[in-house]
Amino acid sequence: xxxxxxxxxxxxxxxxxxxxxxxxxxxxxxxxxxxxxxxxxxxxxxxxxxxxxxxxxxxxxxxxxxxxxxxxxxxxxxxxxxxxxxxxxxxxxxxxxxxxxxxxxxxxxxxxxxxxxxxxxxxxxxxxxxxxxxxxxxxxxxxxxxxxxxxxxxxxxxxxxxxxxxxxxxxxxxxxxxxxxxxxxxxxxxxxxxxxxxxxxxxxxxxxxxxxxxxxxxxxxxxxxxxxxxxxxxxxxxxxxxxxxxxxxxxxxxxxxxxxxxxxxxxxxxxxxxxxxxxxxxxxxxxxxxxxxxxxxxxxxxxxxxxxxxxxxxxxxxxxxxxxxxxxxxxxxxxxxxxxxxxxxxxxxxxxxxxxxxxxxxxxxxxxxxxxxxxxxxxxxxxxxxxxxxxxxxxxxxxxxxxxxxxxxxxxxxxxxxxxxxxxxxxxxxxxxxxxxxxxxxxxxxxxxxxxxxxxxxxxxxxxxxxxxxxxxxxxxxxxxxxxxxxxxxxxxxxxxxxxxxxxxxxxxxxxxxxxxxxxxxxxxxxxxxxxxxxxxxxxxxxxxxxxxxxxxxxxxxxxxxxxxxxxxxxxxxxxxxxxxxxxxxxxxxxxxxxxxxxxxxxxxxxxxxxxxxxxxxxxxxxxxxxxxxxxxxxxxxxxxxxxxxxxxxxxxxxxxxxxxxxxxxxxxxxxx
Length: 673
What we know:
Blueprint (H helix, E strand, L loop, with lengths): L15 H25 L1 H4 L3 E3 L3 H18 L6 E2 L6 E2 L21 H26 L4 H12 L2 H4 L5 H7 L2 H7 L11 H17 L3 H21 L2 E2 L8 E2 L2 E6 L2 E7 L2 E2 L2 E2 L13 H6 L3 H30 L1 H12 L9 H4 L41 H16 L4 H21 L6 H8 L14 H17 L4 H27 L3 H25 L6 H20 L4 E3 L15 E3 L2 H12 L10 H6 L23 H12 L9 E5 L5 E3 L2
Parallel strand pairs: 11-12
Antiparallel strand pairs: 1-10, 2-3, 4-5, 6-7, 8-9, 12-13
Helix pairs in contact: 1-4, 1-5, 1-21, 3-4, 4-5, 4-7, 4-8, 5-18, 5-21, 8-9, 9-12, 10-12, 10-16, 15-16, 15-18, 16-18, 19-20, 20-21
């Protein structure tokens, strides 16, 4: 390949501008996936707005302020005296003290850094999913579809304000990208690939959400087992899924380069394990290499053992790298009521409501907090798994294509890994609504430590995003496909008419949300069907139309799910201050003010910034330097929880906690002495 020649000597001079243009042509999916979240959340990135609703104001920004104050005073942020009666800070995993991107808060205002980083992690997630789709062999369109679908998915954008979940899950596609497999790999050197995987897992562990890291490792284990199980590698060339039998290959720019050949001797085919680490083979394979019947029997086990062992070793190295964060967190966990197991009722709270499966295609079927009319179970965002209608159609096509070509390796991977991952994650997300999660809660370690089974829809989100990319890559509007597309258009128009008629005939507010949600979904569906039906023979502009449609569909849904405020909110002084001692807010009053006055699940109400600051809700009071006996933290010491219960029953104990004032609802404060 010729390179740039600034001197003009030699033939075939290529100017840097032309090279950049060609790089842009090749990498446009990654650029689109990186820029789309910045466009959706432009008010945060460029407009001076910040996240505030829920956890940013009550946890993540106050924690960042406490960490910054300690570091600026030359101290390790081990402890804070402003929350509880003194509380661990570094041991709080979600404070993410050692997570490198969080150090941006030392340069920018904490509220700005937290908000901007949340958006940038969506870009990271989208680019990672696009690269992962390319690894599966899709072209630029498929990569763009997968990246946009994952990066702007309902799972991530609905939880934008849950900073630690999004920051952690943004690394999921990167973990899978570097996970051990036969081929291809973004890093040719196996040792470098091993270290890269360890580093990515370490970054995810430091991002601050143990539940998300646990789910990631489960998905990664299923991923590497799937690669080993299908036992051969594929490449997509000119829209085909050929089987590359007997080769471990590296796919780069849709060229297959052999890196190993299957040898044949005396009519016997030898088994070749995935080359996880160059020059190393599993002990099991060596022991059975000369025993033909036993070797053929144990070969599948050895092919699974090698990639799984590599994944475990990478995870072990990642645990060692993050020990400074995880060991204090483990110590705090041992002191908490969740030391052994979380209560079953707590663990199954926010199980996926079965009726919310309808919202996977019609997201506002039960209303929307931005419209002040959500009435479904729990919170809107915990069950949000909307991926857009165009990606759903492409994913359905990928499944159909795989079933028709199930003898091909790529199709077997779809049917053996991606489709089961999507279905199993939904079954697990249903939580208490099926026997599966209760069984795992009782008998499988790890599942009994966390709340909100609905968060397991991350498996569905990832699998459908990749399936959508595969479907987009192979989509050809055949006569049969056109027939079904026309039926889809007719059905969507019928649903549109039905929704409008129902809205006019019935005054019930629930029917109104049904009608509105159905009408909106039908409009998007008509556009989606028309778009995929009109794929031209030369689809250059059509590719951009598909990417734009997905970005607009998911971007519109995302922008309505994250209320923002002016950054001045975090700098307003409260109306009441306390010179010494601590505040306390009774648990019932705190719950009423938090979820009744300011952060209602059913509605995003207009913000009264001064009233919110005057509420002195924990941990918002930290911003004014006020000390509070309350502490809004997912992991609290058991002795502290016991003391608070006793203190509420016997107010005399408040003297021992140095409580000088009681915070009442509506921002009133009652001094004790």
